[in-house]
Amino acid sequence: MDTAKKTANYGAALKSPILASRERMGTFEELLHDRIAQRAFQFFEQGGRVDGEDLAHWFRAETEVLNLKPEIRDSKDSVMVIARVPDAVPQDVEICVGEHEAIIHATAERRVEATDIAGLQSDREELLVLAQWPWEVDPATASVSLKDAVLTLVAQKTSSALPTTARQ
């Protein structure tokens, strides 16, 4: 392949988020669980380490960690997920799609003003978005795009999820 084609392909690859393999779902689920557990423990410590509040701390942490809510649209044969991923660039967004959910993992660069003479500093923030739907989709049909901080994921429903009239 000549250099011009390689450059064109590389440029195209950087314009799309990474659609991760199904094997990464466990990694994403573990990351999500760990993030919620860490935040719940912080609430436990802030509350004076009083026993008996673990579920309240967990649900509060879950709400905080999963504060970015995606929009889920259903059509006759597909599911569409629309999620805002502010300040993320395509190569820093990774999505894993399962039959009933998708986990979006993104790192975004935030510019913060420094209080010292250094001026602006850059800080990386990790975003996790969980999208769940009641219909079964085929993860192999998933496609994803990112434009103006809006991620769009589309996956085709499996034949068992389609209405009987659509299967015939």
Unreliable parts: 1-14, 164-168
Shape: globular
Pattern of helices and strands = HEHHEEEEEEEH
Number of helices: 4
What is the architecture at the second tier of CATH?
Answer: Sandwich
| Span of the ends, CA to CA | 44 Å
Beta-strand residue fraction: 35-45%
Mean pLDDT, nearest integer?
82
Going across the major beta sheet, what is the strand order? 1-4-5-6
Taken together, the total number of domains comes to: 1
CATH class: Mainly Beta
CATH level 3 topology: Immunoglobulin-like
How many beta-strand elements?
Answer: 8
Cα-atom Rg, whole angstroms?
20 Å
Structural class: alpha+beta
Structure description:
By secondary structure, this protein is of the alpha+beta class. The protein has one domain: Immunoglobulin-like (Sandwich), CATH 2.60.40. It is built from four helices and eight strands; from the N terminus they run αβααβββββββα. It has helices at 3-14, 25-46, 54-65, 164-167; strands at residues 18-19, 71-74, 78-84, 88-97, 101-113, 120-132, 143-147, 150-156. The strands form two sheets. It has a four-stranded mixed beta sheet with strand order 1-4-5-6, with helices on one face. It has a four-stranded antiparallel beta sheet with strand order 2-3-8-7, with no helix packed on it. Strand 2 and strand 3 (78-84) form a beta hairpin. Helix 2 (25-46) packs across helix 3 (54-65). The longest helix has 22 residues, at 25-46. The protein is globular, with a radius of gyration of 20 Å. The protein starts with a helix and ends with a helix. The relative contact order is 0.18. Residues 1-14 and 164-168 have low confidence and may be disordered.
